[in-house]
Amino acid sequence: MVNLTDSDWAGMSVPLLLPAGRNLTIRGSPDLPTGPPILRMPTSPVLVLLDNCTLVVEGVVLEYFVQRNTNFFRTPSLSFLDRSPDGTQGALVVTRNLAAINALCLPSETWEANVAAAARPAALPGVQRFQSNIDQGGCVNDAFVPPLKRCWLARYLVIDTATPGAQLNAAGNPVGSNHVFLLLNVTVLCTVVLERSCVASLGPLGCLLLFERGVAGRLLPGATSPAPPAASAFTAAGGGGGRSGPSPMLTGCIVGGVVLLVLLLALSGLLLRRRWLRAQPSPPPPKYLRESSRDGTAPSASIESGTVNPRGSDEEEKEDGRELQEKGMAPFVSITSDLGTLGGLAIQGSVFATADVISDLTPLPAELAVALRVEASAGCSDGREAEGTGPSVDDAAPVVRLTGLVLGKGSYGRVYEGTYQGRLVAVKQLLEGQGELSPGATREAQETYLQELQVLGRCDHPNIVKVLAACVVDTARPVIVLERMDTSLDKMLYGSPGTLLPLRLVLHIAIQIAQGLSYLHPTILHRDLKPANVVVSDPQGEAPLVKLSDFGLSRLRHSVLRTDRPEAGTPAYMSPECFDLNCDAITHRTDCYSFGVLLWEMLAGVHPWAGMTAVQIAYEVVLLDHRLPIPPLRAPGGSEPERWPPRLRSLLTACFERDPRRRPAAAEAVKALALALEDLDRPPSLRPSAERPSPSALEQPQIVLIPISTE
């Protein structure tokens, strides 16, 4: 037996790159009296295949060979093999004449359908060939005999199958690994075979997830061998054309477990009354923060010169007391550099603000399912019993199945992991009203869910979390199904104490947050922007995807939100006007203040206003007109001057303005951040500095700075 662990790579520089065009073979000795050697691989991924590389594994018995010990046919992978770089061509993994001990197997008929549905890559044409229920005559029911002579719950044979490789990301979703697997004469030895009743009730994916996470121990008291069907001959299935994706094996699993149901219940929404704001005279903002006119024209900014050139006339808004009507065009900036690779980090999504302003007249998408059934698992990972089966709707409604994993908890409800239409999702569900929430709190929570659906359901932007389905009316327990992300910005900031996010990553994240805000504004206020409400996928990658979430405090309005709760939100991120109880109207510029605090927190590496109560923060911000120090010398990130270049200092100072109308729009923040990101690629002598400020680093009013606590 060979046991490959992380200690075997000690002293080596990892990852190990297999040079382009080279081959590597791992071959077991055929002369051992006990049969092929067992190769165990509970190790981290260290080997990377480059263009036209071939890795061959043969003549062994593989055990613990898939990352997280998951099902190989869900994520074709080897534990020591890392993801190949994007754009890799011709990377191939060949496993032949070997056996693989699979910790978890599907019943034979489901396994056959799964393998048959997998489309072969174009580089390896042919048909998928396999056989289930291999005869185990003469086997010995003894764990001490060699694996190939041992009796197993089931034994399958992969004769000739090809599939793209895949790995699980932090959220548990398969992502392509940019190399291809070819399986030739591979015997699958099944330690556990899932019950057909579990697969029938939860679907193959849901049943696999439950068993992998230990929940199935309560659901399936004993997994047994499947009922032996009639002996099957060798099966051939053609690879369907046009199928693609990171894991065709998963696709087959999903197709076998998800049934598309008829939508019966339509959500009736009331159109909110449009509000008009009387114009009030205000001092003009600094020129570099002045927004474009809203008549369809906007200024463009050159990232190389840092100058703004007019593309159309700037029509001044009339201040004669007439009610103003926003005309639906937010400002945008035109970046001349290739933002796909700006500063070494891809900027996902467009830096152009949408020309379609979201309003209460924006229809909900027709494909959004608003009648939904929630099927709970047998138990939750926190030890509690699942809280019912959710809204009571018609049996023909689409189904979301909870896996039992609790992702988060709040005052009103919980966020569970679930599966919906073959993908992992986050399911927000209201707590049971009895015993946990008062009737008044329950009604408020139900209204919050409806408001969040009204806002998020109308949003379609790469930096806004997407609603997939919901059931929030005519039910005591509203449910919203959201796309599943890997982690939150809060966990990235404080998950590893003492570690600061690199400046380049901070700018990349900030740009995507600002792009999301630019899409929302001016008609949607987030009102609770903070790291916990920013979700991230692929946090360890070169270009993480960042999205805004938790829109429970958001409202659709025309341009100004009239409210009797200006104080709603998290005190450390609230703008001065939000602490003013006499303020009955706030605008999207309150989000710009919160964005400044969030950017400051990423740079400083500490919580803003740490150790202060809400009253103390209000006293500092409103009465004393104090702001967070730029830079905070006692914070971990404050001692590094390079983290606080003039462009960022200028942007932060503008975001912290007391007068909301003098704060930058989100689109202007995108421009400033993109310029700062590009500055990182300039030689130090050409970067803006205190002696040589950037064109936009204009003089700002003095702000009193106070020390902060790092506790």
From TrEMBL:
Domain spans labelled Protein kinase: 401-675
Origin: domain of life: Eukaryota
Region (Disordered): 282-328, 682-711
Organism (species): Edaphochlamys debaryana
Name of protein: Protein kinase domain-containing protein
Residue ranges crossing the lipid bilayer per the database entry: 249-272
Keywords recorded for this protein, A-Z: ATP-binding, Kinase, Membrane, Nucleotide-binding, Serine/threonine-protein kinase, Transferase, Transmembrane, Transmembrane helix
Sequence positions that bind ATP: 428
Annotated Polar residues bias: 299-310
Annotated Gene3D superfamilies: Phosphorylase Kinase, domain 1, Transferase(Phosphotransferase) domain 1
Alphabetized Pfam families for the sequence: PK_Tyr_Ser-Thr
